[in-house]
């Protein structure tokens, strides 16, 4: 209901689908997680174009909040007047929440009301009220302002009707932008007769009605920067005449007296000048100036407070500096007295110290002689250590030679073992070949079997001979492995000796740089690992095997 009424007052199309979507039911009940304000801003206020009746909008807002917040105590003003005071409060309040009206704006409003009632302004009374207000809070809320005006504290001696008329006049000026209003005679454009109308002057228009209740509007005079107003001489029995010239039409108007005529001419001319300059209405411009003045005074006050704090801090710093200087002077005086006392004591001590220094010099000379003797002994020890290191270096060279010879022996054994392994591999391949040939001969005809049997016997004999040779090669390979193990042990012993000599050299401060063997030559590699004999031995074994094979055939 609230959303629909707001859309109606603000001339915004109501969107029930968006409302249902925003406030749809969920597991926690039909309450929006975002609340009503996001919906109000997005779906209503953002669509407002400005072509709505602000009084009706204010009246709706007043209906929502007045019953809850309006004071229950009897007031000297009606509910309608309270509504107008509430609207005036919204216009004059500060632009921050919660809304309050500051004492300066309260004084401005009370002065306007007093002037409208035709009474005198009581500045002293308001000053006392302002002092009491400043001690308790910064300003008044809308309901406090209604209570203040409705209590009659600043309108004593005035009846309810006078107060109501004053409130209505101020409401018209500040809210409805009514700059001037009153009865005057207007000359018709067609019938040329003079008719009394109620004229209302606003910042860009003059509206005229049948009466001041504003129910029957008869027309408007649109004002712009091109309009002008000028006085006319009396004619046709009409006095106090003036003419309003617009682009498309002119209007002749007769005021009730010269004073009213001059006031209307001046008010209309002022309005036209404001339109030319593009300035806001006088009361809005005055409010903006008061606000800027308050901000300027507040900034000056803050600047003054800041300067006072800086002066206070500077004063405290000066006080601390003076206290520090005083303490430094006292400390300097104490130090001077102490230094004088020490000087006298030092003079006495120097005499005693001189005699002690002589004794100490004798002892130092004696110690230096002892140190010279000790250094001579250390030099002899150092020379002895150098000789020991030279001897160790010679022994280390011998150990390195032994290690080198062991590595050469190991290389020879590796080559021999590799050649034996290759011979063994060739024998195995030949045996496999003979075995395949035997299987082929079995499949021959019976006539060839006898001949093949003889050949098989010969080949079996050759195979036995080859097996014997293979066994001989296996024995030789085992012997080569034993030789390799012996050489390996010798190599390990040589490496251990080398390591012990390295440790000794490192223990004697590293005066000798160790000589390590170079990189090894690449070894022969067989299907069973590194070879245990050299290439020369392998070639020799291959020649012997071929000779034995030729002999057996």
UniProtKB/TrEMBL annotation:
It holds the Pfam family EF-hand_SWAP70_N. CDD domains: PH_SWAP-70 (cd13273). PROSITE patterns: PH_DOMAIN. One of its GO terms (molecular function) is DNA binding. Residues 283-504 form a coiled coil. Transmembrane segments: none annotated. Gene3D superfamilies: Pleckstrin-homology domain (PH domain)/Phosphotyrosine-binding domain (PTB) (2.30.29.30). It comes from the Eukaryota. SMART domains: PH. Residues 177-273 form the PH domain. InterPro entries: EF-hand_SWAP70_N (IPR057836), PH-like_dom_sf (IPR011993), PH_domain (IPR001849), PH_SWAP70 (IPR057837). GO terms for cellular component: cytoplasm; lamellipodium; nucleus; plasma membrane. Keywords: Cell membrane, Cell projection, Coiled coil, Cytoplasm, DNA-binding, Membrane, Nucleus, Phosphoprotein. Its main location: membrane. It is found in: Cell membrane; Cell projection, Lamellipodium; Cytoplasm; Nucleus. Phosphatidylinositol 3,4,5-trisphosphate-dependent guanine nucleotide exchange factor (GEF) which, independently of RAS, transduces signals from tyrosine kinase receptors to RAC. It also mediates signaling of membrane ruffling. Regulates the actin cytoskeleton as an effector or adapter protein in response to agonist stimulated phosphatidylinositol (3,4)-bisphosphate production and cell protrusion. The SWAP complex consists of NPM1, NCL, PARP1 and SWAP70. This is Switch-associated protein 70. It comes from Calypte anna (Anna's hummingbird).
